[in-house]
Amino acid sequence: MKNIIGAKPEPSAAEVRFLTVDDDSAGQRLDNFLFRHLKGVPKTHVYRIIRSGEVRINKGRAQADSRVEAGDVLRLPPVRVAARSEEGATPPAPGREFPLLMEDEAMFAIDKPAGVAVHGGSGVSFGVIEQLRTARPGAKFLELVHRLDRETSGILLVAKKRSALTALQDQFRERETGKTYLALVDGTWPANRKVLDAPLAKYLLPGVPGSSEAGERRVRVVAKDHPDAMRAITLVRVVGSLTLPGDAQTMSLLAVTIKTGRTHQIRVHLASAGHAIAGDDKYGAFERNRQLQKLGLKRMFLHAWRLQFNHPAGGKRVALQAGLPPELEALVPADLRDTLAASPTTPHHD
Asked: Rounded to two decimals, what is the model's pTM?
């Protein structure tokens, strides 16, 4: 027997359930879809039942980032849903607005600060999207168009209509957007090394002994014939070089444009080339990052600087820019700031 999407399950329901995806939910990520329909279930548990294969889409296994489509039938394992008033229920996210870069009836763009996850899950109770929904209770629809790593700052798009979401996500999928980041790396980047075309694959670190939890997710460069290989292309342009006060190490400020949107793509590509992003706690060197903290860099130096896309209503080309946040800009010499200001808006690589 199928549950209709609008029906509310009993708080204590602990039986296999089936949900049919309606038109308004089409295009959502599986994890976000489940968060909305399993109110009271801890997000860590939602990810656990997805990873274990207990959640099925049309009888097949799925991943957290799988997209659901209208008419899909989801099988959900028995889960005990805590009543909202019960102790231990997930508290609502605090409302928070973020600096706006643009907004209209279809969508808006914010300048996300570092240290804030884009959504809850994997040990994070709430993120940008949950805080925005609380801050805008009258909004009927708010969904993330794409993602940024928690420690990455910069441009993030949010759709206010289903049509805008699907139109923008189609552009990201078809590589019709222009996404350029600013990254500071150790060493002198070779000016003639402009294209990184190396397949990537996800893997999990070993979990904690005695725990059923899987280890942290990581990404690495693999051979083209690796079974999980995903093609990834990164374009690199050297903006200039600098040294931090009190440091003897030459560093390179890079404008990095990604042609594919793989998880941790820039971080892994640059690290695999021998130039890890300054402050990267996953792919950088622990001792070097510790030294950089003492020199004033308290976070990873990766910033989603510029983004181009066709507006979902009308198709006009939109070019957005988010300047470096103060904690990063303070580390960049004045001459390089001038170079950034004079840099052409349209990504280009000789």
From this structure: 0.77
Dihedral (CA of 301, 123, 109, 99) sign: negative
| pLDDT single digits (tens) 23-47 | 777 778 898 889 878 877 888 888 8
Q: Annotated catalytic residue: which of 31, 149, 186, 280? A: 149
What is the per-residue pLDDT across 105-128, written as a single tens digit (0 to 9) for each? 999 999 999 999 998 766 677 899
Domain hosting 239: range is 176-342
Residue with tokens 């996210």: 93
Among 163, 161, 119, 166, smallest CA distance to 141 is for 161
Same domain, 152 and 229: no
Domain CATH number, residue 114: 3.30.70.580
Q: Is 149 a catalytic residue?
A: yes
DSSP for 39-94 reads TTS-HHHHHHHHHTT-SEETTEE--TTPBP-TT-EEEE---PPPPTTSTTPPPPPP
Phi-psi bin for 176: left (phi > 0), alpha (psi -120 to 50), beta?
alpha
